[in-house]
Specification:
Layout lengths: L3 H13 L7 H14 L3 H14 L4 H13 L3 H14 L4 H13 L3 H14 L4 H16 L1
Helix pairs in contact: 1-2, 2-3, 2-4, 3-4, 4-5, 5-6, 6-7, 7-8
């Protein structure tokens, strides 16, 4: 419903009710996502890491961690999590695009082009990936 601030209280309440072990990664994932949506990236990272401790093979958690680290301008860490997300879900165009954006931020344009192109091959509706790929190409032409 687009109310992450209200959802946080419910996820915290769920954690206090001794949930089944199999439910913990889901709760941590959603709680971390709410914190991420509110721009509380450091808190989100801590919660999402708890989710990975419960189940390391969750591409959604790796994606959310990647976004948080990107927002914190910790691009290498973001790359690590987006890379793990695509290892777990090779069809995830958004994660390939996110890899491209992070490599671009690190000045690694060849890698950025590779991942942005792959992302657009999987999903050509990713406008931000198209725009960044065009920007890189334009900058190369000017050089």
């Amino acid at each position: 419903m687009g109310q992450p601030d209200q959802a946080i209280a419910y996820f915290e309440k769920a954690l206090s009710l001794d949930p089944e072990e199999e439910d913990l990664p889901y709760i941590f994932s959603y709680l971390g996502s709410c914190l991420k949506e509110l721009g509380r990236y450091e808190e989100a990272v801590q919660v999402l890491k708890k989710g990975l401790c419960e189940d390391e093979e969750r591409p959604d958690i790796h994606n959310s961690l990647g976004v948080c680290f990107f927002k914190l301008e910790m691009f290498e860490k973001a790359i690590n999590h987006f890379q793990r997300a695509v290892e777990l879900n090779p069809a995830s165009a958004i994660d390939y695009a996110n890899l491209g954006v992070n490599y671009y931020r690190l000045g690694k344009n060849d890698s950025a082009i590779e991942f942005l192109t792959l992302a657009l091959t999987l999903d050509d509706s990713l406008g931000f990936a198209k725009e960044l790929l065009e920007k890189i190409a334009t900058n190369r032409e000017k050089q």
